[in-house]
């Protein structure tokens, strides 16, 4: 990709135009500026990249940082079937975003797993996590957007990019998180669609590193929003062998990690933690509308109340 710096380098190398830029009219400057922007791709990073996969975000709006320090040296990556915000600092994704539907999950059931972990070629070499970073580390290569959500081979291959992977405790990855991913798919099957933001947090004062390069998250989270019932909740678990897990609200997650993962939701939805299931098929706290009593029954009840009142008089 041609960057602004590389463009300037090329300009200096071939020499500047003989005419003076100061003599150009404001209209000409505007036209030239627009042409240069088109040629070298100088457009806002989020608008340029996430616009290509806006369907992965509820309302087309991606997560927002409330702690601006976390946004340093991040890169937007659109994949087939999901989106990722990657951190050059941690060499892990900070979050992934997916839009799940019944149809997508039905297609995903037809595909057997083919592991194809690979480095992300779109990232600068210095920023990439490498396969060697995880070798012998004692940590699993944990998916953020899981393989089980992928509806075709192209999506599946993309899910094994190390840009979608973070170091995860083996027991957390193979038991707790596996159950959560299955429960999330169950919710999607039940309600038809769901928006999912899966991510990592670095809340410990001392952060462990793999090979002095990849940072190990202190926590993993998975935020789930179900449009059919207008409810949202977050799975939040420490990245260890304890098998602990919390169900918290979107607002509580924002307070803990400095990222508002679902910024366009109503305040009440973000403040209330929907009781997410820990296993597929588990009974959950779904809103139930009481059935109205038939009018004839109300009439009978009214007569009985009148008779009882007359007897007590």
UniProtKB/TrEMBL annotation:
Family: Belongs to the DNA/RNA non-specific endonuclease family.
InterPro entries referenced in this protein's UniProt entry, alphabetically: DNA/RNA_endonuclease_AS, DNA/RNA_non-sp_Endonuclease_sf, Endo_G_ENPP1-like_dom, ENPP1-3/EXOG-like_nuc-like, His-Me_finger_sf, Non-specific_endonuclease
Organism: Psychrobacter urativorans
Gene3D superfamilies, sorted: Extracellular Endonuclease, subunit A
SUPFAM superfamilies tied to this protein: His-Me finger endonucleases
UniProt name for this protein: Endonuclease
Superkingdom of source: Bacteria
PANTHER family: ENDONUCLEASE G, MITOCHONDRIAL, ENDONUCLEASE RELATED
An MF annotation (GO) of this entry: RNA endonuclease activity
Enzyme Commission no: 3.1.30.-
Active site per database record: 143
Keyword DNA-binding: no
Domain DNA/RNA non-specific endonuclease/pyrophosphatase/phosphodiesterase span(s) in chain numbering: 78-268
